Amino acid sequence: MEQLNLRGFTGRAHGSRESRRLRREGAIPAIVYGHGLQPISVAVDRRELYTALHTEAGLNALINLQVNGDEYLTVARELQRHPVRGDIIHLDFIRISLDEPIEAEVPVEFTGIPVGVREGKGIVETPAASVVVSALPTNIPSHITIDITDLKVGDSARVADLPELPGVTYVSEPDHLLVMVTMPAAAPVEAAAEAPAEGEEAAVPTDEGEEEA
Fold first, then answer.
1. Model confidence over 157-180: pLDDT tens digits?
2. Is residue 192 part of a domain?
3. What is the DSSP letter of 11?
4. What total of structural domains would you count in the chain?
5. What's the whole-model pTM score?
6. Contact at 8 Å (CB) between 191 and 170?
7. Rounded distance, CA 92 to CA 75, Å?
8. Rounded Cα–Cα distance for residues 73 and 93 (Å)
């Protein structure tokens, strides 16, 4: 997996006011720690961070964080986002070693159109679209693919159904549900007759089939 360079600037003050100032100036406050490193408060350029996190590796990109002449191999974790815009407003950089496994959340891609959709008029539901794996940093897959072509209505696929990948261990529970094919919910049935208006009595049929008021 490719390693990306990202500059981290130190000397920032702490507190919400300072963090808002940094974000107005196009920087994102962060902290780097791990592997015996004392936590260091840094700020990174918003555009450079966006570029680093939008490669094929996504949020599992290996980032060489350059701080005061030192380099720390890290991954981005604990991303905090703006509740409305979704922009990153703070994150942690966790220092890692290429020789030690790490855990990572990896997206699952579903391929094929299930037979239950083609022939059974079912629909696909995806309760989960990612799994947690453990692997050496360079072995973390960018995504995991599973073919759902053979799923019939009522069938499902779980973590246990995912393909085995060399050097990758699934951390998510084997029975964790990923995708299923179900029938769409039935449309609500309209009332056969409208309820009588307030103050009115329902019509009562007579023996001859006529209605009495």
1. 999 999 999 999 999 999 999 999
2. no
3. -
4. 2
5. 0.77
6. no
7. 8
8. 9
